[in-house]
Amino acid sequence: MDRKERTVFVTILINGLLILFKFWLSAASGSLALRSSAIHSLADLAIGVFVLIGLFLSRSNLAAAAQHGARAVENWVALLVSVAIFYVGLDIVGEVLAGDPPDLRNLGPITLASLVTVVVAYVIARYKLYVGRQTDSPALIASGYHSQVDIYASIVVVAGLGGAALGLENLDTAAAAIVVVMIFLSGFEIAAAAITALRRREQLHVEAEDAHGHLHSRGWLRIYAPIASLALIALYFLTGIYTVQPGEVAVVRRFGKVIEEAGPGMHYRWPSPIETVDVVALDLVRRIETGPLQMLTGDENLISVRASVQFSVGDASAFVLNVSAPDDLVLQAGVGALRQSVGEDAVDAVLTVDKTAIQEKAVKATQASLDRNAAGIRVVGVQLLESAPPPEVADAFRDVASAREDRNTFVNEALAYRNEVLPTARGDADTARQAARAYAAEKLATSAGDAANFESRRQAYAAAPDITRQRLYLEAVEKSLAGAKKFVMDPTIIPQSTDLWITQPGKPQLLPPMQ
Predict the structure, then answer these.
(1) H or E element at residue 302
(2) What is residue 216's three-state secondary structure?
(3) CB 373: neighbour CB atoms within 10 A?
(4) Which of 222, 262, 353, 364 could make an SS bond with 218 (beta carbons 3.0 to 4.6 A apart)?
(5) What is the DSSP letter of 392?
(6) pLDDT tens-digit series, residues 67-105
């Protein structure tokens, strides 16, 4: 390699390291402008590669080989590289037009580190110009002037990052838009040179002497500035286009005041900072969880509670204007409402049967708190994920719960025994009651019969006392001497001798026997 080739080769290596450094800074900060600058440096590296190839082919021994098709391959590769540069540039344009706020971070140290990219781009450009003038190389001098564009791109990026670090986050997107214009111009330069070389069947001259002289005489700003200005103005107005998906509402603000809410579809607004738009998903149910929280119950017991809160956006305008950290706001309101609800119930209710009632009360209290702050948030539900006593008193709670279960078991057993004995006792009582009533009825009937019998005998005795007395006598004898043989004698008979009368068993007989 001669001095010119070594210079281009060294600058290609430095440029490669610079590109990797810019991509790393972009990943660490989320800056779109830094990523655009890295891609612009990639285009500059591609130009450097083509310059190096041109220097090689300018040698006599390589020029012969170029005549056998090497030039055509180089030109086609250059054309493909330009297409790739346009594609990456369009991807960045899409992100710029999307209007999504960049997720920027670490802006302070990244801005300071980005100053290194300005210094490195300046060193590369000055090195190419110095060696180009020393060796009288038009291509190297033109490449040096082209590398100066990378200095301006790096300065724009640093300015955008500095503005974002001061709170103007849109400056990063604006810087990315400016760098994208430079990327398109670099891609256009490579594509134009490649098409010209293919059409004329000659060597690729990305940084030709004529082009350098043209650029040097007019200055790159005199050519690029009008085009870049028009492109920037067009991009600025295109940033006013935005789309709203189904289930979303766009809140449009003009200088901070809400002027309308747009539904699903494509819309246009004045670009920032005149008007801004915030797209809010109304049908998105968000969910946050609390960690384990120590809460005091109504009977002054300490329990550990973990819960989740589901919410969605009810009023998009109020949500955009009054809420900056919705998760934190809902979490604080939910925890406060949950503490209030738990504090109104006893520990047994919280741990067992009243969870549903506590959740409903927490939903109402959370919604009331958010409404007082005009948050535009609708609470969908509060769910107790865990409620348990603290670990220090968990054993005591388990003993109490076990004793309570034993008490319930004993009560249930007693109720079962009562249900078994009471029907039997009631049956026996009814049986005894019915027997007593039957006995009383029997005795009353017997007494009535005896009284009637006595009355009939009395009447009979009054009518015929002797006969009745004799009959009663015989009945009494019959009853008192039951089973014994009895003899009825005529009182007029005076026994003077002893007669033995033998009766025949089984039939009544008259004694003394009739003669």
Answers:
(1) strand 302-313
(2) helix
(3) 13
(4) 222
(5) G
(6) 555 566 666 766 666 676 677 667 667 666 665 666 777
Tokens 């006595």 belong to residue: 454
- Residues 36, 94 contacting (CB under 8 angstroms): no
As assigned by CATH, the class of the 3-207+219-239 domain is mainly alpha
Mean pLDDT of 476-481: 86
Q: Are 279 and 250 in contact (CB under 8 A)?
A: yes
Give the tens place of pLDDT for each residue, 389-419: 877 777 887 788 788 889 999 999 999 999 9
Kindly report the number of other CB atoms within 10 A of residue 483's CB atom.
4
CA distances from 84 to 19, 34, 79, 81, 184 (A): 16, 18, 9, 5, 11
DSSP 309: E
Return d(Cα 106, Cα 302) in angstroms, integer: 43
Non-local (6+) Cβ contacts of 429 within 8 A are none
Going by C-alpha positions, the residue among 99, 101, 94, 95 that lies closest to residue 243 is 99
**What's the CA gap between 346 and 362, in Å, rounded?**
16
Nearest CA among 184, 174, 173 for reference residue 30: 173
Position with higher pLDDT, 428 vs 489: 428
User: How many CB atoms sit inside 10 A of residue 45's CB?
Assistant: 20
Single-letter amino acid code for the residue at 233: I
Provide the β-strand partners of residue 308.
289, 383
CA dist., res. 344 & res. 296, Å (int): 9
> What 8-state DSSP symbol labels residue 391?
G
Q: What CATH architecture applies to the domain 286-390? A: 2-Layer Sandwich (3.30)
Domain ranges of the chain: 3-207+219-239, 242-281, 286-390, 401-443
